[in-house]
Design goal:
Number of helices of chain B: 4
CATH superfamily of the largest domain in chain A: PPM-type phosphatase domain
Distance between the termini of chain A: 120 Å
Helix content of chain B: 40-55%
Helix content of chain A: 40-55%
CATH superfamily of chain B: STAS domain
Largest interface: A-B, 27 and 17 residues
Number of domains of chain A: 3
Strand content of chain A: 15-25%
CATH topology of the largest domain in chain A: Phosphatase 2c, domain 1
Shape of chain A: rod-shaped
Structural class of chain B: alpha/beta
CATH class of the largest domain in chain A: Alpha Beta
Radius of gyration of chain A: 46 Å
Radius of gyration of chain B: 13 Å
Order of helices and strands of chain B: EEHEHEHEH
Largest sheet of chain A: 5 strands, antiparallel
CATH architecture of chain B: 2-Layer Sandwich
Number of strands of chain A: 19
Order of helices and strands of chain A: HHEEEEHHEEHEEEHEEEHHEEEEEEHHHE
Distance between the termini of chain B: 32 Å
CATH class of chain B: Alpha Beta
Number of strands of chain B: 5
Strand order of the largest sheet of chain A: 6-5-9-8-7
CATH architecture of the largest domain in chain A: 4-Layer Sandwich
Strand order of the largest sheet of chain B: 1-2-3-4-5
Oligomer: heterodimer
Chain lengths: 515, 113
């Protein structure tokens, strides 16, 4: 009888005999010395082995059952002896063979598990190799589906990933076998249970399309069922427990690959944003003058430092032959990109109005800018404080208009510094600007410092503002120096005051000194 | 920052506490948006008695709400400003844009007038 027709238990018994052949022979020899004529092992009515060699016909005088897991799997026969003592010995021998069979079964189980583990390791290795170079999610999903088809031995597979808007990204291999509706309903089911779903499709409408079975396994990404793998038609049979185990391993690995790719794509997005922000900063810095016009009668210096990547502060100079030198400092409320965009707009409008208007006094410039920008400011809920100054050298007059801007400090060479307070509201607050032209005499060594509140509101470790009083004192101390030194001295003093605290607001300053 | 409110006839009074700055402004803005959506006309008094500091984002929030209220035939008025806060309104000349009252009752009275 060929081995293949034996039951699995009988096959195991046969394996035990072939593995322990010399021991069985010794056992048979022992029986021969007690007068037996043969010893044989039987299963399912067939003889698995018999001793001595060449034994043909056997008429057993005693039989003892060989048991495994509570059931009889075979018998041990002895011929030619039948005493009660011999029967006891035979039963003991059969019990011994049973134990051998049990150990053999355990060994086979362990081997099977070892092979499973090795298969899984190979699967992971295969997946890693197959997917390592895929940087697009669609490609990765398709490759995972292809590799899973080969590893599990099924006709086709699909991988799906839930997009942030809950739509599904599905990739099939080698072709589409299942409609999205069924896939969606499977996903809904496994999202709750978080375990695989095994569907027999042979009695359903899908059988017409040749579908027999589907193993649908959830993939957990960031603690949620965000993806899944579906395997269709296990070749020649149904999906069994080794397949389920293998697919779990594939799902786990696929999840980690997908998560890596998502992270990778997110970091690329981040980098893109960073590059754009860097570019915005560069553009914005280019909008601020880095070289200053030579203006008869004044020495000037200016600078600006945004608190975040881009800021809402700006300063500008307009110096045209035959027209008074005009300068302005603006502070758009808020920070970041919206403030920066409005800053660029305000600056352009301010320069255009100054260049185009035949008599661009500060009041006219501010009023026209307000009219031009009011709707835009209202639209985005922002406003801008602006100081516009204009120096007329012929009569050493400084005209200015102040739309809600502070601090502006005027320090006459022979007197105490004073704040030039605003008379108009910031641009964008009211439909008409209330700022009016003001003027003062700007003599040799008089100093004007126009700053944004990022300086006066710089705070120290006790949350105390630098404030106006300190500002006036420091300006008074520095007023004898050239414009650049006044600028640097103020900047340093305020920086030291905030002692390493991060800068909360943009800081911009123009220093003008009469020469 | 904590936001409390109470009604005075057709007027709703918003009471703010602490620092009114870029961090607390979105919450105040949300509250104001809701009032402006649900009250016709939106007559609002912002009582700043317990506000110790306002920054430019806070000012922008109040300016925006004031403009919206006026568009909707209501108004947003301020009362009980502490000295440092009043100074900021004066320096930026927003005192010329807002109606500012020493006491909440005066603001309520002015709405009735």
């Amino acid at each position: 009888m060929s081995k293949s027709k034996l039951s699995p238990e009988a096959r195991m018994l046969s394996t035990v005999i072939s593995g322990q052949r010399s021991q069985f022979r010794s056992l048979a020899d022992a029986w021969m010395t007690t007068g037996a004529t043969s010893l044989s092992v039987w299963a399912n009515g067939s003889r698995l082995a018999a001793w001595p060699k060449g034994t043909e016909e056997i008429t057993p005088s005693m039989k003892a059952p060989i048991r495994l897991n509570g059931g009889d799997v075979g018998e041990l026969w002895v011929e030619g002896i039948g005493t009660p003592a011999a029967e006891k010995t035979l039963i003991a021998n059969a019990g011994f063979i049973s134990r051998l069979a049990r150990m053999e079964k355990e060994l086979m189980g362990m081997t099977e598990r070892l092979i499973d583990t090795q298969d899984q390791l190979l699967a992971v290795y295969g997946l890693t190799e197959a997917t390592r170079n895929h940087l697009e999610m669609d490609d990765l999903l398709k490759q995972l589906a292809k590799t899973a088809t080969g590893l599990v031995g099924c006709e086709s597979a699909f991988l799906l990933l839930k997009n942030p808007d809950d739509s599904l990204n599905i990739e099939h291999y080698p072709e589409v076998r299942l409609d999205e509706e069924l896939i969606q309903s499977c996903l809904t089911k496994v999202s709750g249970t978080k375990s695989e779903l095994l569907l027999n499709l042979s009695e359903t409408e899908y059988s017409r399309a040749g579908l027999r079975n589907l193993l649908f396994t959830p993939i957990i990404i960031r603690d949620e069922v965000s993806a899944a793998i579906g395997l269709i038609n296990k070749k020649d049979q149904d999906f069994g427990s080794p397949d389920i185990k293998l697919v779990r391993v594939i799902a786990e690995h696929a999840g980690s690959r997908m998560e890596h790719l998502i992270l990778f794509q997110e970091s690329i997005e981040q980098s893109k944003l960073q590059v754009e922000a860097d570019l915005a900063k560069k553009v914005q810095l280019r909008l601020l003058p880095t070289t200053f016009p030579q203006v008869e009668g004044v020495d000037l210096w200016a600078g600006s430092e945004p608190a975040s990547q881009v800021g809402g502060d700006y300063y500008a100079f307009v110096s045209n032959p035959g027209r008074p030198f005009t300068f302005c400092v603006g502070d758009v409320s808020g920070k970041g990109m919206p403030a920066a965009l409005l800053m660029a707009m305000s600056r352009t409008v301010m320069r255009t109005k100054t260049n185009v208007n035949p008599t661009p006094t500060p009041e006219v410039i501010l009023d026209e800018c307000n009219s031009e920008l009011y709707d835009d400011f209202t639209e985005v809920s922002m406003f801008a404080t602006v100081f516009v100054g204009q120096y007329h050298h012929e009569d050493r007059k400084l005209m200015y208009g102040n739309a809600g801007h502070s601090p502006v400090v005027f320090c006459p060479f022979d007197g105490e510094p004073i704040l030039l307070e605003a008379d108009g509201t910031a641009l964008g607050v009211l439909p008409t600007s209330l700022a009016q032209d003001q003027s003062l005499t700007f003599r040799k060594n008089d100093v004007l410092v126009v700053m944004t509140d990022g300086f006066s509101e710089a705070s120290n470790h006790d949350d105390e503002f630098f404030g106006y009083d300190r500002l006036l004192t420091v300006i008074k101390m520095l007023a004898k120096k050239p414009a650049k030194d006044i600028f640097d001295g103020l900047y340093e003093t305020i920086k030291n005051f905030s002692a390493g605290r991060p800068q909360d607001d943009d800081q911009t300053m123009i220093v003008i000194k009469g020469t | 920052m904590e936001i409390k409110s109470h009604e005075a006839g057709d007027i709703i009074v918003m009471e703010l506490e602490g620092r009114f700055d870029a961090y607390s402004a979105p919450k105040a803005n949300e509250w104001l948006e809701e009032v402006m959506t649900n009250r016709k006309p939106p007559n609002v008094i912002v009582n700043l008695e317990n506000v110790v500091f306002v920054d430019s984002t806070a000012l922008a929030t109040l300016v925006q709400a004031m403009k919206r209220c006026r568009q909707l035939d209501g108004d947003l008025r301020l009362s009980n400003l502490k000295q440092p806060v009043r100074m900021i309104f004066e320096l930026t000349r927003l005192d010329r844009a807002f109606e500012i009252f020493n006491l909440e009752e005066e603001a309520v009275g002015a709405f009735a007038a």
